[in-house]
Structures are given as C-alpha cells and as structure tokens.
Amino acid sequence: MKILTTRMEAHPTDSHTLARHRATGGYEAARHALTSMTAEAVHEEVKASNLRGRGGAGFPTGVKWGFLPPDIRPRYLVVNGDESEPGTFKDRQLLERDPHQLIEGIIISAYAIDCHEAYIYIRGEYPRPARRIERALAEAYDAGLLGRNLFGTGFDLDITLHLGAGAYICGEETALLNSLEGERGYPRIKPPFPAVEGLYAKPTIVNNVETLSNMPWIVENGGAAYAAIGPEGSAGTRLFSLSGHVKRPGNYEIVMGMTFGEFIEEYGGGVREGRAVKCFIPGGASAPWFTGDQLDLPITIDDVGRAGSMLGSGAIVVMDETTNVVHAAHSIVNFFAHESCGQCTPCREGTSWLEMVLARILRGEGRPIDLDLLLDVSDNIAPGLGWPPKMTTICPLGPSAVSPITSILRNFRDEVEAMIPAEVPVA
Amino acid sequence: MSWTADPRVEQILARYPDKKSAVMPFLYMAMAEHGYLTDEAIREVSELVGMTSVQVSSIATFYSMYKRERVGSYLISVCTSVSCAILDAADVLHAIEDEAGVPAGETGDDGVFTVEHVECIGACGGAPAVQVNYELIEGVKEDKGRELVRWLRDAAPDTVLGDEMQALFGGQRSFEWGPAEGEGATGPVPALDALGTTGGSS
Known about the structure:
Chain A is an alpha/beta fold. Chain A has 19 helices and 10 strands. In chain A, α3 crosses α11 (215-221), α15 (325-339) packs antiparallel against α18 (397-411) and α17 (370-381) runs antiparallel to α18. A 5-stranded mixed β-sheet of chain B has the order 2-3-1-4-5.
C-alpha cells in the first residue's frame, strides 16, 4: 500500500513534470474539491482521515486547521520544507520527485481553510528540490492551476517559494515564520499558536511537506479510507528515512505497525556485514535512542511514545555493534550546539557545555566527574530528564540535545566510563 | 549592472505583504554579485527592505549560508552530522582539507577553495555527503573526495553540475534522483533562477 511514492516509482523519468502528473490523474482531486465540495466538507474529510503531522510533533492535521479563528482574514498557509533534522531526507524526495503532488495538496488545503496566499519554505541547502518546485510552480501558473479563478470557481491562490539560508531552527514553526518575515529565526513563545497569530500576526497554518502531499489521495479516496490504513493512532502510510549501518539505506513508504527489526531487515537489508544492531534512533536526532533489544517494538507513534521516545520526523538511524556511542552522541550534541539560536540561556550555554565535555572524553581527557556533569547540565535544560521533556527553554531544541546524553548514560554507561582515564593523583 | 537594478528585485518585493520579508532573497542576490556580503552589499539590501545596516547584518550573521568573508570559487561543504559521522565523514573531510590545502572553515590564498564542515544536509541515506556550491554529491569516499578536489582544480568548471559530480565522485544515493538536470551552480549561492519569486502577479 503506497500513496506518496506511487507516481515516482511507476514513472521514474518524469514523475516531476506536469504532463506526467496530469496523465496520472493529477489535479483531478483539487478540481473535485474546489468544484464539488464545500471547504467545510474537505476539512471534514481531513479530520476523518486521522492524518497526523509528518514534521515531527504528530499533531492531527484536521484538528490544527480547526484552531483558526473564524472571522479573521487573511489567513496564510505555510509549507514547512525546512527539513534539517539529522537522519531525515524524506521531504527532499517528495519535493524533487513529485512536486505537483505537493502543489495539488496545497491547493486543496488552502481551499479548505479559505486561504489565498501560501508560502513554501525550503531550506537553502536544497537547491535541486527548490528548482523542481520552482519549475512546477511555473508550470502550474502557466496552466491556470494557480493564480486567479482556479477551475472557474472564483477561488484565487498564489504560492511563493522562499529559500532558507542554513538554520535548523527555522524548521520550528514559529522560527520559520520569523524567518519568513525577514527576522532572525528565533522561535516565539507559544501561545499564541500560529493558527491564531502567525505570519504577519495573521492566522496561519504551518504544515509539513509530507503531510500536505497526502491531501490529493485523501480527497480522492475519502478520509475514512485513509483512516482505515494502519493501526489506530498511526493512520495512513508514512515515508521513513533509513540511514546508518544498514545495507540499503533509503526512504521507504510503509504502513505503520511492523516492528523496527522487520523494517530494518525487509527494507534496509539488515545491518552491514551481518553485524548486530547496537542501538538505533527511532525518529530523528532529537529522539532518545533505543537499544538492540528493543527491535521488536512496533513502529507506531503511540508505541514509540510509550517506550520513551518519538517517531518524530520519521528518521531511523541504525548503529551497529562497532559504533563508538560517545562519538555518535557528540555528533548530535555538536549539531544542537551549532544550531541553538541563542535566545535561551540553558540551551545556548548548556548545549555548548555538553559538546565540550563529550569532546574531551573523546580526546581521552575526560574526568571522572564528567558523567555527573553531563547529567547536571542536561537537567538544567530538561529538568528531571524525562520523556517527553520538561523544558526551561522556548522551544524543544535544547531538550533535544539531552536525548543522546541520557541515551548513552542510561544504556552504555560502562563504555563511557571506560573512555575516561584513571584520575592522576595530584602530587 | 548592479543587482539592485535586476527586474527580479521588484518581483520579489511584490510577493510579500511586508518588504522586510525580501531580506533573505536579496542577501542571496547581493552575494551572487559580490561573491560574499560586503559592507556595500549589506547597505544595498538595507535600503531596499527599509532596515538599518545593523539589522540586515544581524540577519546575515544568523544564517550560515550568508558569508561575510570572501569565499573561494568552490565552496566545499562536508556533512559531519550523525549518519555521516558514523560512516566516517571525518576521514572524508580530512582528505578534502588535505588535498585542497585548506583547513575547514578557511579559504585558500589562491581563492579556489573554501572548505567547511556543515550540519546535516538531508542526504543521510547517501552518507557521507558533500556539496560543492550547494550542489550535492552522495556516497563520497575518502579517495573520491580527493579526486573531486583535483578535478575541480584542473577542470575548473564555471558551472558545477550535481549530476556530473555524482557520476564521477559519488556512490550510494539517498534515493534515485531521476533524470539529469542541466542546471548547476556558478558560485557559493544556491542555484535557483528566481530565488523564490516564481508566482503570480499579486
């Protein structure tokens, strides 16, 4: 059962073109929605689909749309294509290989929420996906699928492509809105949530690329049909990014519910050189890690949540038994230290401290107190070190840097301790 | 002709309710002309978007792709985030630094190369990943990293094409890319014609 990758698999040479999109039923769902359904009816189908956002938080999309205040216009739709969570590369494929699927999803969604201006924010390091979107937008405008009076209904929609410039934090929806407004990409304090006060202080829906790419199918087949796919709470198919020490890394669209072990074997071809899985990250670099004895866990949003982590952005990173977990954790902590926007002290200072301490352990200069120091600094960012984390910061970036720390200290404490030289007595 | 006279300037301004939103595409346009963000470029942008130079500078320094110092003809970015890190990205970075004769974070005296390590570039299924002027190459091994540097120095392409570099120096990809493109980058700015201006006439 596939939804998102059907066209690109059947037509690998031209799935990104308008001609192929149309030849495979493209824009018929948008036409149907705009000409035969009310906006409310489209919204009802999306609610009935139980689709949950694919960017990381997993919030039900139809419910989010329902938060728009009824009387304020204009409303904006902002597409989050700032995919930057380490391990994640699924939106890149959807942007590159089927840009019209996304644009059609935007048309349907904009109609449902009565919005006439949409922005696609794509990270600056994605010039090829951005070029594909740029060309697809031009094709859609030329064909009258965007602009004025879509499908003769009087509905207008403009879509603008906006390029980021190298800041992970702009994937956080309020930071993205500030970036789009021409500010530094600082996350805002919530509430107000974007649905109430977002872009240019107007009601704004921010949805992920994959989330919106599902809309043509939902309109065509109905929300109930979508909700019937997969286990309860994890409806629909989902595109997972598999990377690390597997034989066949890649993006794989699956129905949720199989176990991580089955996914890694069947799709990833197992671990390289027949080795054992030491640990794996189930949902992007922000997520706490699982160990090799947790491979029987089903891939669902709720199962992973109950086990103390998250499916997040749908990025699974596999580490085999040869992995130096301090090295891997350092890479992740270094990422968050580099990408901290600097607004909140616990994150700005804490992530850098965590990075420095891990770096000296890696250099063989660690001190016996360093394990406690790592936990102490972590506790200042995410008090109690639980999951989901309590936060002393505006956004979850800081607590994300804590995930690899608790992961290695809870599961591989012996290995970390073994890297710390015995204390030399002071003469 | 200065970039400020480019017709795209008006098109970009027309796409946003507030001209401040144009600061990011304008910073790219200014960089494309000057090679990096000179004080003059910052001032030009500030006049167009109605901010002070200090405000524009504060934005330019927030985003890692806006460069306030001169960069080489080829900006080589090596990903060192987790999926690349556990597949020996550090070795690829060292090989590229060594072959280019430029340590990460610096630009060579001859202005040919700037080498940097970067955070996740969304190519984790094709780790380790490298970009040249933001055009991606996936599955780059140490020896191919060296060959890439030599090739850039010797062939000195005006435009770097991702498909060509992938074929010559790449390996494992995150996914099938589909048909080759003829477009690529001519400098350290993402190669995109309209820089996000594509759209209607609102």
